[in-house]
Amino acid sequence: MAEVVKMPKMSDTMTEGVMAKWHVKVGDKIKSGDVMAEVETDKATMDLESYWDGIVLYIGVEEGKAVPVDAVIAVVGKEGEDYKAVLEAEGGAAKPADAPAAKTEEAPAAESKTEAPAGGAALSDADIEKMGVTVVRMPLLSDTMTEGVIAEWHKKVGDKVKDDDILADVETDKATMEVMGYAEGTLLHIGVEKGQAAKVNGIIAIVGPEGTDISGILSQGDAPAKAVSDKKSDAPVAEKAAESAPEEKEAVAADGGRVKASPLAKKIAKEKGIDLSQVSGSADGGRIIKKDIENFKPAAAAPAASTSAAPAEKAPAALPAYVGEEKFTEKPVTQMRKVIAKRLSESLFTAPHFYLTMSIDMDGAIAARNKMNEIAPVKISFNDLVLKAVAIALKQHPNVNSSWLGDKIRYNEHVNIGVAVAVEDGLLVPVVRFADGKSLSRISAEVKDFAQRAKAKKLQPSDWEGSTFTISNLGMFGIDEFTAIINPPDACILAVGGISQVPVVKNGAVVPGNVMKVTLSCDHRVVDGATGSAFLQTVKSLLEEPVRLLI
């Protein structure tokens, strides 16, 4: 009978895996123990082995695709065996392989669906354009905006509207803005009364030929929100002059009156350094619009300006304009980054964190480390000394070596310390087990091995599971101090900074000293301030007198 191969759960935090590479294809003969594929989990890339002998009858996932845990990814059986019954018994979980056929069969149905709206009341954008109608929607004017309030309507239903006419003032969460229709015709519909709020991309007005039936447009409702761009159709808005009144003077015409200009014309004139008072407007009432600015010729506007100017006066030096370009690159989130985001967000927003910082005199630790490395089989680092001191301190303070389990607290009697290791895609936390009973040389060797295997993505689930406390050290990057987010289910994490040479007071005299700052992040549901402080006092005493680490 054919056997179904499902995506295994390769770690306690894994919810899906990415099929990094298939080592077999449909029709290949495999044996138990053969590697079928490589799967990228949230921790590492791992081999997926076959537990059956037979022929690969079906592969349901393409390389590079993500698959939920327990989803069908392949079927192994005898040559020529019918595997479809097995897939149906699994609830059709692995239908991706049949997708091409399904698509061709469903194509006619899809076509009939797309044709359906044509017979109904809804209208497409092309239909609306043929009608000569422009739908004015509430624009998305900022990344935090969800709705806008109509502060004032400058037109009413039945009024004639021209290009660049301001239809309304809209109050957003940032400022009051002017909304223009960028259309010519009659204002056929006002969807939101003055003082009322409209959702982003809700219909606020419709402009078109007089007498046009707009019932089909109104029946479509609101469209999905779109961010404002610099395109005319997407951004018929400009900030009101009132927002920048302290910085910008209003343009005044030659006869002393106010210059009437559209916001777009004002913006272009400002960019080109054109005085609006010298421009003649072609719109109603002498209003200046975009084409007036584009057609303006400064030389013709003021031929006598240069001759009347005093020789002693010099025009201010013009600074060269710099035009930047906004660019970005987007990449899919990796499995590791997904889990980091999920778990640390849950930790920070679920566990009530508080932080305790302490300075430790490292003069004794520096001298002891130099002596140890003269005879140690492997080089001992300051991080190894910290890890050993923490392990001993945890045995003396079991409340810190604990976990919050909702309706109970688990007090761990063993000491398993997770060591945060930075890798290309994020962060891994391999675990040094029973660290309190291991020598410094043994701890150093294990941490170095974990770091090498983590960077090569060769760690196994057993390497990162089961921590009771975590250490994160950024001292090698020149960081003096920082706070870390607790790594669930641990109750605490220790953030270790670098060793700094600073003046210290010893025996009443100021002398050079070597000081390291550590910060303990605590889950207040489990650890109180006094408990965390006592733990740090013990760590401090052990590092300031390293001989105690050997007892």
From TrEMBL:
Keywords: Acyltransferase, Lipoyl, Pyruvate, Transferase. The pyruvate dehydrogenase complex catalyzes the overall conversion of pyruvate to acetyl-CoA and CO(2). It contains multiple copies of three enzymatic components: pyruvate dehydrogenase (E1), dihydrolipoamide acetyltransferase (E2) and lipoamide dehydrogenase (E3). Forms a 24-polypeptide structural core with octahedral symmetry. Residues 2-77, 133-208 form the Lipoyl-binding domain. It comes from the Bacteria. InterPro entries: 2-oxoA_DH_lipoyl-BS, 2-oxoacid_DH_actylTfrase, Biotin_lipoyl, CAT-like_dom_sf, E2/Pdx1, E3-bd_dom_sf, LAT1, PSBD. CDD domains: lipoyl_domain. One of its GO terms (molecular function) is dihydrolipoyllysine-residue acetyltransferase activity. GO terms for biological process: pyruvate decarboxylation to acetyl-CoA. Belongs to the 2-oxoacid dehydrogenase family. This is Acetyltransferase component of pyruvate dehydrogenase complex. Residues 94-123, 225-256 are annotated as: Disordered. It holds the Pfam family 2-oxoacid_dh. Its EC number is 2.3.1.12. Residues 240-252 have a biased composition (Basic and acidic residues). Binds 2 lipoyl cofactors covalently. Residues 94-118 have a biased composition (Low complexity). Residues 260-297 form the Peripheral subunit-binding (PSBD) domain. It catalyses: N(6)-[(R)-dihydrolipoyl]-L-lysyl-[protein] + acetyl-CoA = N(6)-[(R)-S(8)-acetyldihydrolipoyl]-L-lysyl-[protein] + CoA. Signal peptide: none annotated. Transmembrane segments: none annotated. GO terms for cellular component: pyruvate dehydrogenase complex. Its cofactor is (R)-lipoate.
